[in-house]
Specification:
mainly alpha, Rossmann fold, Arc Repressor Mutant, subunit A, 5% strand, sequence-specific DNA binding, transcription, Homeodomain-like_sf, transcription regulation
């Protein structure tokens, strides 16, 4: 909700830092930047946003920067009723920005846990990446440009990252960001490949000497192993390391999905694709990825549905246009196909491929063969139409030869060659089975720990839980701490000389309630006892609610109706006759 145009990249960066911090918490579903920012500065009902994103709570707020001071405001809103149940302002000097981001993230995490049940919260969610605030602001400007994903914006981003590095030679995240930009420029052909890769490696060598406890570190090897060498085993190991550091790390989830697609492990790929969509549901790329899985499974109708949705989110997603074209070819939908390819590149190749698949006895024009041979070393098609066409024509052997060359060059366009429907005719060639083989089996994947096995062990045994349950019950009945409207989980934890994670765990495990519902259940019982007492008949219902520890009219009314199935006034009226 920040309207500070002059500091937009700074405000967006703070928002992204808080999103990333919260996403580190296992058990807490946090929507990623791409989908969250779809609603930036838009006046949309939070109930609609909650439905679009599949969340129970929306966090909204703003950042205000003035000279050397900063204020962050935040509020948590229930998406079912549209009611706000928490808000707070945080003020700091700009020099304390990382401490402030950490404080805000922890406050939000605690409040969500208080309302929805137990999950463990680390002592700190944000580590200070640099001592230089100016370098940090330059980094955020670079990050804003990088996320536009154009060759111009990537080069501009590198410029800002380099300025940040000039101010702080130990700014690891800036080096990792440069590495990613150079890697993309190399893979997409926007820079001479070797030049870009040398610059990427140079940044990696510096970054790893400074900080390896970031998920960017293991993931920096994935591009090399997965796309550069097709070394799937090493790629898997490094993706796992990145996801161990942050289970909701978008780049890691994307890489794991792409890896499992390449291997044909479709159940695994769908698991990670669905996790991607949980945390980033409005990403066109994620819906395209899901469509790709269905396409390789030959579920062309389902693939078409998903790729059409991807294109409603981003009409410029080129690979999605190609995938839609492929689905229409296999479904033999001639009219839709012609409409789909009008005003597109490679139109002649697309039409020929449609004819080959659906009409069979079609010859490949000699001039097209000549064009391919002349342009082979000059430009690369985004998808290998030449290989697809040759493989489904009388030139199957030439198709296989071309495919073999691309595999030897580890070209990303054919990494899924064993699954590609258009390459099915090549499976009959004896040498096909001898092409590059994966060094990662499904057994290698399954022998690794599941997410549940990786989660932290139970922090208290059954006897300890039962003992603390009794002690908590006695404390709330005898001392009535719930009458304090500012009662917090930390306050209760301090009374029992335990940390907040353990108290949250006990309340959730023993009482099957989140902290706020646990406290409010005592407040509600207290309200009911004093509301029917004749000596309080002159007091208002809201006054009695406040006397019971509730500090908000909306929270009281919502909780009362949820618990009792009626309004407070109706309940009082029916119980005081």
């Amino acid at each position: 909700m920040s309207n500070d145009i002059d500091n937009e990249s700074f405000c967006d960066g703070i928002a992204e830092e808080i999103i990333n911090a919260l996403s580190k918490i296992k058990g807490l579903k946090v929507i990623a930047r791409r989908s969250s920012f779809a609603f930036k500065n838009k006046n949309i009902d939070v109930r609609h946003i909650g439905n679009q994103l599949g969340v129970a709570t929306v966090l909204e707020g703003s950042v205000r920067k003035s000279n050397n001071s900063i204020r962050i405001t935040g509020q948590l809103i229930d998406t079912k009723y549209g009611t706000q149940y928490w808000s707070k302002k945080f003020d700091r000097e700009l020099i304390d920005i990382f401490e402030l981001e950490d404080v805000v993230s922890l406050a939000i995490a605690d409040e969500v846990r208080n309302n929805f049940g137990h999950f463990e919260v680390q002592d700190h969610l944000i580590k200070q990446p640099t001592n230089n605030v100016e370098a940090y602001q330059l980094f955020l400007q670079g990050r804003s440009l990088q996320l536009k994903w154009t060759p111009e914006s990537l080069n501009q981003a590198i410029s800002y990252y380099n300025q940040a590095i000039n101010l702080d030679k130990n700014y690891a995240k800036a080096y990792y960001a440069n590495l990613q930009c150079y890697g993309l420029l190399a893979v997409w052909g926007y820079m001479p490949y070797q030049e870009a890769m040398d610059l990427a490696v140079g940044n990696l060598l510096i970054a790893k000497e400074i900080e390896t406890a970031l998920p960017e570190y293991p993931l920096s090897f994935v591009g090399k192993f997965l796309w550069g060498e097709w070394d799937f085993k090493n790629a898997f190991i490094h993706i796992e390391k990145a996801l161990d550091m942050n289970p909701n790390y978008i780049d890691g989830l994307e890489a794991m999905t792409e890896l499992f697609i390449a291997l044909g492990f479709f159940d695994k790929a769908l698991t990670y694709a669905n996790r991607l969509l949980e945390v980033d549901p409005l990403s066109a790329n994620n819906h395209y990825t899901l469509a790709s899985i269905y396409y390789y499974q030959r579920k062309f109708k389902k693939a078409l549905e998903n790729v059409n949705y991807a294109l409603t989110l981003n009409t410029d997603l080129a690979l999605a246009h190609h995938l839609k074209c492929f689905c229409l070819i296999w479904l033999n939908r001639s009219q839709q196909f012609q409409y789909c390819i009008q005003d597109t590149t490679l139109k002649e190749e697309k039409n020929l491929l449609f004819q080959l698949i659906n009409n069979k006895d079609i010859e490949v024009p000699e001039q097209m063969m000549t064009k391919w041979s002349q342009s082979q070393n000059e430009e690369t098609m985004p998808v290998p139409y030449d290989v697809f066409i040759l493989s489904n024509s009388s030139y199957t052997d030439q198709g296989f030869t071309r495919l073999k060359e691309m595999i030897e060059q580890r070209r990303g366009q054919v990494i899924n060659y064993r699954l590609e429907p258009f390459l099915q005719p090549l499976h009959n060639i004896k040498e096909f089975s001898e092409l590059h083989k994966s060094n990662l089996s499904i057994e290698d994947v399954d022998c690794h720990q599941t997410d549940e096995e990786k989660s932290s062990p139970i922090i208290l045994d059954a006897q300890q839980v039962e003992t603390l349950k009794e002690e908590l019950g006695s404390y709330f009945k005898e001392d009535e701490p719930f009458l304090n409207p500012q009662l917090s989980l930390k306050f209760v934890a301090d009374v029992f000389e335990l940390n907040t994670n353990k108290i949250s765990y006990v309340i959730n495990k023993a009482f099957h309630l989140n902290f706020n519902d646990f406290v409010n259940s005592y407040r509600l019982n207290h309200f009911k006892s004093i509301a029917i007492d004749p000596k309080n008949s002159h007091l208002t219902i809201l006054g009695l609610a406040y006397d019971s520890g509730f500090n908000s009219k909306s929270v009281f009314n919502t909780y009362f109706k949820k618990t009792e199935g009626t309004t407070p006034s109706k309940w009082v009226k029916s119980n005081t006759k």
